[in-house]
Amino acid sequence: MMAGMRNAAAPAHTDARALARLAHLLADETRATICLALLDGRAWTSGELARAAGVAPPTASVHLSQLVEGGLLVEERQGRHRYLRLAGSDAAALVEELAGHAGAAARPTGSLRAVSASAALAQARTCYDHLAGHLGVALLDALCAKGLVNRDAGLSLTGAGVAWLTDLGVDLQAARAGRRPVVRECLDWTERRHHLAGAVGAALCDTMLERRWIERTPRPRVIRVTETGTHELRERLSLDLQG
Any alpha helices (H) in the chain, and if so which ranges? Predict the structure, then answer.
Protein backbone atom coordinates (compact mmCIF):
# COMPACT_ATOMS: atom_id res chain seq x y z
CA MET A 1 0.00 0.00 0.00
CA MET A 2 2.79 2.40 0.98
CA ALA A 3 4.76 1.47 -2.15
CA GLY A 4 1.73 2.22 -4.30
CA MET A 5 1.32 5.62 -2.65
CA ARG A 6 4.98 6.45 -3.28
CA ASN A 7 4.68 5.50 -6.95
CA ALA A 8 1.55 7.58 -7.37
CA ALA A 9 3.31 10.61 -5.86
CA ALA A 10 6.39 10.33 -8.07
CA PRO A 11 5.07 12.43 -10.99
CA ALA A 12 4.23 15.28 -8.60
CA HIS A 13 7.79 15.20 -7.24
CA THR A 14 9.13 15.23 -10.78
CA ASP A 15 6.99 18.27 -11.64
CA ALA A 16 8.17 20.03 -8.50
CA ARG A 17 11.80 19.43 -9.41
CA ALA A 18 11.21 20.74 -12.95
CA LEU A 19 9.49 23.84 -11.57
CA ALA A 20 12.34 24.40 -9.12
CA ARG A 21 14.89 24.14 -11.94
CA LEU A 22 12.97 26.68 -14.01
CA ALA A 23 12.64 29.05 -11.06
CA HIS A 24 16.38 28.72 -10.42
CA LEU A 25 17.13 29.80 -13.99
CA LEU A 26 15.35 33.13 -13.51
CA ALA A 27 16.39 33.62 -9.88
CA ASP A 28 19.77 34.96 -10.99
CA GLU A 29 19.83 38.67 -11.89
CA THR A 30 22.23 38.20 -14.81
CA ARG A 31 20.09 35.48 -16.40
CA ALA A 32 16.94 37.52 -15.78
CA THR A 33 18.55 40.56 -17.44
CA ILE A 34 19.47 38.46 -20.47
CA CYS A 35 15.90 37.15 -20.83
CA LEU A 36 14.42 40.64 -20.51
CA ALA A 37 16.79 41.95 -23.18
CA LEU A 38 15.71 39.18 -25.56
CA LEU A 39 12.06 40.22 -25.26
CA ASP A 40 12.71 42.45 -28.27
CA GLY A 41 12.32 39.29 -30.38
CA ARG A 42 15.75 39.51 -32.02
CA ALA A 43 18.67 37.12 -31.86
CA TRP A 44 21.61 38.65 -29.95
CA THR A 45 25.24 37.61 -29.93
CA SER A 46 26.72 36.37 -26.68
CA GLY A 47 28.93 39.48 -26.61
CA GLU A 48 25.94 41.81 -26.93
CA LEU A 49 24.17 39.99 -24.12
CA ALA A 50 27.27 40.16 -21.94
CA ARG A 51 27.34 43.95 -22.37
CA ALA A 52 23.60 44.23 -21.72
CA ALA A 53 23.98 42.26 -18.48
CA GLY A 54 27.16 44.09 -17.45
CA VAL A 55 29.25 40.94 -17.08
CA ALA A 56 32.39 39.56 -18.70
CA PRO A 57 31.90 37.40 -21.82
CA PRO A 58 33.06 34.17 -20.10
CA THR A 59 30.56 34.77 -17.29
CA ALA A 60 27.77 35.45 -19.78
CA SER A 61 28.68 32.28 -21.68
CA VAL A 62 28.10 30.16 -18.56
CA HIS A 63 24.72 31.76 -17.92
CA LEU A 64 23.70 31.43 -21.58
CA SER A 65 24.53 27.74 -21.60
CA GLN A 66 22.36 27.24 -18.53
CA LEU A 67 19.44 29.07 -20.15
CA VAL A 68 19.79 27.00 -23.35
CA GLU A 69 19.98 23.75 -21.39
CA GLY A 70 16.93 24.83 -19.39
CA GLY A 71 14.91 25.41 -22.56
CA LEU A 72 14.37 29.16 -22.20
CA LEU A 73 16.80 30.09 -24.99
CA VAL A 74 17.87 28.56 -28.28
CA GLU A 75 21.14 29.23 -30.05
CA GLU A 76 22.41 29.37 -33.60
CA ARG A 77 26.06 29.48 -34.61
CA GLN A 78 27.30 31.36 -37.67
CA GLY A 79 31.03 31.19 -38.04
CA ARG A 80 32.59 32.27 -34.78
CA HIS A 81 29.44 34.05 -33.61
CA ARG A 82 26.93 32.55 -31.23
CA TYR A 83 23.42 33.98 -31.60
CA LEU A 84 20.77 33.48 -28.94
CA ARG A 85 17.07 34.20 -28.73
CA LEU A 86 14.10 33.21 -26.59
CA ALA A 87 12.87 29.72 -27.33
CA GLY A 88 9.51 31.01 -28.57
CA SER A 89 6.36 32.90 -27.67
CA ASP A 90 5.71 30.68 -24.64
CA ALA A 91 9.12 31.50 -23.16
CA ALA A 92 8.58 35.20 -23.89
CA ALA A 93 5.12 35.13 -22.27
CA LEU A 94 6.58 33.49 -19.17
CA VAL A 95 9.28 36.16 -18.79
CA GLU A 96 6.88 39.06 -19.35
CA GLU A 97 4.26 37.55 -17.04
CA LEU A 98 6.79 37.10 -14.24
CA ALA A 99 8.03 40.65 -14.78
CA GLY A 100 4.44 41.86 -14.43
CA HIS A 101 3.97 40.00 -11.15
CA ALA A 102 7.32 41.30 -9.88
CA GLY A 103 6.01 44.85 -10.28
CA ALA A 104 7.23 47.86 -12.21
CA ALA A 105 10.83 48.85 -11.68
CA ALA A 106 11.54 51.72 -9.33
CA ARG A 107 11.71 55.14 -10.90
CA PRO A 108 15.27 55.58 -12.24
CA THR A 109 17.36 58.11 -10.36
CA GLY A 110 20.48 58.05 -12.53
CA SER A 111 21.34 60.04 -15.60
CA LEU A 112 18.87 61.88 -17.80
CA ARG A 113 19.60 59.29 -20.47
CA ALA A 114 18.56 56.44 -18.15
CA VAL A 115 15.37 58.22 -17.14
CA SER A 116 14.54 58.94 -20.79
CA ALA A 117 15.15 55.32 -21.81
CA SER A 118 12.91 54.04 -19.02
CA ALA A 119 10.10 56.45 -19.98
CA ALA A 120 10.36 55.42 -23.66
CA LEU A 121 10.06 51.72 -22.74
CA ALA A 122 7.01 52.44 -20.61
CA GLN A 123 5.37 54.42 -23.42
CA ALA A 124 5.67 51.95 -26.30
CA ARG A 125 7.76 48.82 -26.74
CA THR A 126 7.67 45.33 -28.15
CA CYS A 127 7.06 42.36 -25.89
CA TYR A 128 8.73 39.68 -28.03
CA ASP A 129 6.52 39.99 -31.13
CA HIS A 130 3.59 42.14 -29.97
CA LEU A 131 3.07 45.65 -28.60
CA ALA A 132 3.37 46.56 -24.94
CA GLY A 133 3.61 49.58 -22.68
CA HIS A 134 1.03 52.36 -22.69
CA LEU A 135 0.54 51.88 -26.45
CA GLY A 136 -0.15 48.14 -26.13
CA VAL A 137 -2.60 48.55 -23.26
CA ALA A 138 -4.41 51.46 -24.96
CA LEU A 139 -4.64 49.45 -28.19
CA LEU A 140 -6.36 46.52 -26.45
CA ASP A 141 -8.72 48.89 -24.63
CA ALA A 142 -9.64 50.52 -27.96
CA LEU A 143 -10.24 47.17 -29.67
CA CYS A 144 -12.57 46.17 -26.84
CA ALA A 145 -14.37 49.54 -26.82
CA LYS A 146 -15.05 49.17 -30.56
CA GLY A 147 -16.43 45.65 -30.09
CA LEU A 148 -13.62 44.05 -32.07
CA VAL A 149 -12.34 42.01 -29.14
CA ASN A 150 -14.52 40.65 -26.35
CA ARG A 151 -13.39 40.31 -22.73
CA ASP A 152 -16.62 38.89 -21.29
CA ALA A 153 -15.57 35.23 -21.06
CA GLY A 154 -11.86 35.33 -21.66
CA LEU A 155 -10.37 37.23 -24.56
CA SER A 156 -11.94 36.44 -27.95
CA LEU A 157 -12.11 37.95 -31.42
CA THR A 158 -15.59 39.05 -32.52
CA GLY A 159 -17.05 38.88 -36.02
CA ALA A 160 -16.56 42.62 -36.33
CA GLY A 161 -12.96 42.13 -35.26
CA VAL A 162 -12.39 39.53 -37.97
CA ALA A 163 -13.76 41.94 -40.58
CA TRP A 164 -11.69 44.85 -39.23
CA LEU A 165 -8.44 42.89 -39.23
CA THR A 166 -9.11 41.44 -42.68
CA ASP A 167 -9.74 44.94 -44.05
CA LEU A 168 -6.46 46.02 -42.48
CA GLY A 169 -4.62 43.25 -44.32
CA VAL A 170 -3.94 40.93 -41.39
CA ASP A 171 -3.62 37.30 -42.51
CA LEU A 172 -5.99 35.65 -40.03
CA GLN A 173 -5.73 32.26 -41.71
CA ALA A 174 -2.02 32.19 -40.97
CA ALA A 175 -2.63 33.51 -37.45
CA ARG A 176 -5.05 30.67 -36.74
CA ALA A 177 -2.87 27.98 -38.28
CA GLY A 178 -0.26 27.93 -35.52
CA ARG A 179 -0.36 26.36 -32.07
CA ARG A 180 -0.47 29.61 -30.09
CA PRO A 181 -3.77 31.20 -28.97
CA VAL A 182 -5.39 33.50 -31.53
CA VAL A 183 -5.76 36.25 -28.91
CA ARG A 184 -4.35 36.28 -25.41
CA GLU A 185 -3.92 38.81 -22.61
CA CYS A 186 -0.39 39.50 -21.40
CA LEU A 187 0.20 41.35 -18.12
CA ASP A 188 2.15 44.53 -18.81
CA TRP A 189 4.90 45.05 -16.23
CA THR A 190 4.93 48.87 -16.53
CA GLU A 191 1.18 49.50 -16.87
CA ARG A 192 0.12 46.68 -14.52
CA ARG A 193 -2.75 45.99 -16.91
CA HIS A 194 -3.08 43.68 -19.91
CA HIS A 195 -2.02 44.20 -23.50
CA LEU A 196 -2.85 42.07 -26.54
CA ALA A 197 -0.69 39.02 -27.24
CA GLY A 198 -1.26 35.78 -29.13
CA ALA A 199 -1.12 35.26 -32.89
CA VAL A 200 -3.31 38.30 -33.61
CA GLY A 201 -1.22 40.52 -31.34
CA ALA A 202 1.90 39.51 -33.28
CA ALA A 203 0.22 39.87 -36.70
CA LEU A 204 -1.18 43.29 -35.78
CA CYS A 205 2.26 44.49 -34.69
CA ASP A 206 3.77 43.26 -37.99
CA THR A 207 1.02 44.97 -40.01
CA MET A 208 1.49 48.27 -38.16
CA LEU A 209 5.22 48.11 -38.86
CA GLU A 210 4.62 47.32 -42.55
CA ARG A 211 2.16 50.20 -42.87
CA ARG A 212 4.62 52.46 -41.02
CA TRP A 213 2.13 53.30 -38.29
CA ILE A 214 4.94 52.46 -35.90
CA GLU A 215 8.68 52.13 -36.30
CA ARG A 216 11.55 50.67 -34.34
CA THR A 217 14.10 53.00 -32.76
CA PRO A 218 17.80 52.56 -31.99
CA ARG A 219 16.87 51.76 -28.39
CA PRO A 220 16.19 48.03 -27.89
CA ARG A 221 12.45 47.24 -27.86
CA VAL A 222 11.38 50.91 -27.98
CA ILE A 223 8.69 51.72 -30.57
CA ARG A 224 7.71 55.13 -31.92
CA VAL A 225 4.25 55.90 -33.30
CA THR A 226 4.57 57.78 -36.57
CA GLU A 227 2.43 60.71 -37.70
CA THR A 228 0.61 58.31 -40.04
CA GLY A 229 0.04 55.88 -37.18
CA THR A 230 -1.29 58.60 -34.90
CA HIS A 231 -3.81 59.58 -37.59
CA GLU A 232 -4.84 56.00 -38.48
CA LEU A 233 -5.29 54.90 -34.88
CA ARG A 234 -7.44 57.94 -34.20
CA GLU A 235 -9.56 57.39 -37.32
CA ARG A 236 -9.93 53.61 -37.09
CA LEU A 237 -10.07 53.06 -33.32
CA SER A 238 -10.80 56.51 -31.83
CA LEU A 239 -7.47 56.07 -30.07
CA ASP A 240 -5.92 59.42 -29.19
CA LEU A 241 -2.37 58.80 -28.00
CA GLN A 242 -1.76 62.47 -27.45
CA GLY A 243 -4.72 62.90 -25.10
Answer: 2-26, 29-37, 46-53, 57-69, 89-102, 112-123, 133-145, 159-168, 172-177, 198-210, 227-237
Q: Are 202 and 130 in contact (CB under 8 A)?
A: yes
Strand, coil or helix: 70:
coil
Q: Which domains does the chain have, with CATH numbers?
A: 2-87 (1.10.10.10), 103-237 (no CATH)
Q: What is the pLDDT along the chain (243 residues), one digit of tens a residue?
A: 434 434 444 455 558 888 888 889 999 999 999 998 888 878 899 999 999 899 999 999 999 999 999 999 999 888 878 899 998 878 887 887 787 777 544 444 454 454 456 788 888 998 888 999 999 999 999 999 999 999 987 899 999 999 999 999 998 888 888 788 899 988 887 888 899 999 999 999 999 999 999 999 988 789 999 999 999 999 999 998 875
Where is 127: in which H helix or E strand?
Answer: strand 125-127
- Asked if residues 102 and 192 have their Cβ atoms less than 8 Å apart, the reply is no
